[in-house]
Fold:
Amino acid sequence: MTYLVMVGSLMLLILGASSSSEHGSLKDRCNSEVFTAHECVRRRDVNGTCNWCHCRPPSGDVDPACFSPYAASVLPGFCDCTTNHTAAAAVTATATPPALLWKSRILGEGGMKSDAVLVTIDGVREAALIIGANDGNVYSMGTAAGVLRWNVSTGGMVFAGATLDPGDGGATAYIGSGDGSEYALRSADGAVLWRFATGGPVYSNPTVAPAAAGRPEVLYTGSADHKLYALTAKGGKPLWSVDLGGPVASFSILSPAGDALYVGCHDGRVYKVSTAGGGVQWSFGTAAQVQSDQTMSADGATLYIGSDDGLLYALDTASGRPRWNYTAGGAVQSGITLNGAEDTVFFGSYDGHIYAVATAGGALRWRAATGGQVGSKPKLWPRAPGAERYLLQGSFDGKMYCLDAASGAQLWAFATAGPVHSDPTLSEDGQRVYFGSYDNFVYALSTGFK
Structure:
């Protein structure tokens, strides 16, 4: 195994490298030297591309894949071995270390994959949260101290997060269960308003389309029975269903006009489905199952979605053809987050990294390492376009991470006693974050955001 070393004289040679003899001498020198810090070499190859680069992270393991070419507009022909690729952007955010406000244990075992939603109770905004758990319960806890308000037992693990009804101000929460049912619960007390049984476990968050002229409020949900369902939000009556060829664990997203749904499927395809009756308008094939929760540009022209084949795809929504794709080092099951300026998408990968990728062509902006697989969806704050300074995302290493959104630099990390697969949920003012862990606790932290 070869190692590289960063020394002042070598940096001078890097900048002046222009011949095959220099290329050989540099490589021989690097192969003969070993470094122990998290250091590496940035160099230009003789043909203007980066074709070799190694670095030694603090763990001591050599990672040959720790580099990535910079976008041509930043450093043409160079490769950057630093984990976060911070040379392209300065750190712009500061945050004080997080404080644990409370943690509340669920009744059973198995932890949580579900993400929390904040609800208004008796006119008090964000008075409580609703979250599912792998013990088969849906829980509501007060946000002030994490006190249990109610729980509803279902017949299967609740991986899905709840979706609040936009038509009644969140008085109704919709959530799926591994028992094969979609539930409508009253947010105030957990009363079951209706239940619709599918033919398989329901692991995706439902999507609710507001009522429109001549059309009632509609709920869309996927099931492991291979079907995407359209139900009336009030009453849970079936309108239509379509078989997509594999389990549907990705949540569906509506087009801006509300005439189409986009959803990933375990058969490895992404589908565009008409909301008028469930007809498939196009499908795009990846090389593995699609479990990622996608996002879309504001104009509805581009869909961003990940696949277990390790790629993030940018798809043209009109045709289903890829505009570009970016290759991560592992499955991309996390949700995808687009910033307000729509120039960067953020996501996690099972290679243990959090990524920021440019929407114009798919060039890597930065990559930040965690100590475990990353399957949760990143959350940005503030929410104003161009103002996002902070990124929150959980990792299977048991930590919730706070990164500088511009550079990927770590601002803080909070450790739990189990993997964090739950998406972070921020309060409106950005001062609190709520999430679940596989250690069976729901956490509330102060973020320290400035």
Observations:
- Residues 8-82 form one domain.
- Confidence is low (pLDDT under 50) at residues 1-88.
